[in-house]
Amino acid sequence: MRLTDQTLLDEDYRYCEDIIKQNSKSFYFAFLGLPKAKANAVYAIYAFCRIADDSVDLGGTRSEKINALNRIYQELSLFQDEKELDHPLWRALRDVFTRYKMDIQPFFDQLKGQRRDIDFTIPQTMSQVEEYSYYVAGTVGLMLLPIIASESEQDLTQQAISLGVAMQITNILRDVGEDYRKNNRIYLPLYEMESESYTEEDIKQARINIGFIRIWEKMASRAEALFDDFQEVIKYFDKDSRFQVLLSARLYRGILNAVRDNEYDCFFKRNFISPMEMQQIQQETKVFASAST
Question: 3-state DSSP: the chain helix, strand, coil percent, rounded to 5?
Fold first, then answer.
């Protein structure tokens, strides 16, 4: 590769890095220690998912959202056909697909998940929550798998999906109020809400009662079980990625405790992991990762 080409590629990856740095401090913090090529690949994948998500969530009419998502779909189809696209994201992803044994299908599935949000309907059951979570987040685990488990002989597909689903359920439990206020969406399963006599009006009024806490904790327990399933197989991931992947999972899991510490106020409080807590989780993760080798 000529120096000018490498310089351009470095700039493309910086574009992707800026997106993750601006939008997810916890992910950026977790993956900083990866080898450069792997970190760059993570940044490019995150940038793709963020751009797709923003095309749906950053306002506009239904028609405008569909058109924006269709443009990404068309570009991804051209990318699949080996067409060169003059944009930092696609140039970076081309390098990722050259370096690693990537599968294009999770990228298309991610767009299917974003399409569901345009014509959103409240999930009826927890199974439907998990199906949706596969499309918008389990797919991310599959995108990352060839990068962070490139040397593994184990089939880690289900665990990669489990991590993404656990993170998405955590997102749902963190953003109950914001999702309703900004996008008029309720991701709590209707069956569970009806079982606890908890209504849309309760969400509108930000009522934190025993019924809400039971729904919240039931979903949190499922997320924590999925985090546990993932942690059980961490030893099969690449040695140079094991700690960073586990750290990302543990930082995300920590959000659940942040909500609990705020007395389940996921309506108005922004529940996050403080820098001090990040450092503590980092140290605990180092100990666990070392013991898992």
Answer: 75, 0, 25
Chain centroid, CA 148 distance in Å: 15
Q: Round to whole Å and give the CA distance between 288 and 293.
A: 9
Q: Which two tokens stand for residue 203?
A: 């969400």
Contact 236, 272 (CB under 8 A): no
Exposure of 196 in the CB half-sphere (CA atoms within 13 A) = 22
Alpha-carbon distance 122 to 125, whole Å? 9
Asked if residues 187 and 172 have their Cβ atoms less than 8 Å apart, the reply is yes
Cα 167 to Cα 223: distance, rounded to the nearest angstrom: 7
Instruction: List, for residues 163-206, the tens digit of each pLDDT value.
Output: 999 999 999 999 999 999 999 999 999 999 999 999 999 999 99
What global pTM score does this model have? 0.93
Q: Which domains does the chain have, with CATH numbers?
A: 1-119 (1.10.600.10), 122-293 (1.10.600.10)
Query: Other C-beta atoms within 10 Å of 50: how many?
Result: 17
Taking a C-beta distance cutoff of 8 angstroms, is the pair 199, 207 a contact?
no
The region that residue 197 occupies, defined by phi over 0 for left and psi between -120 and 50 for alpha, beta otherwise, is left
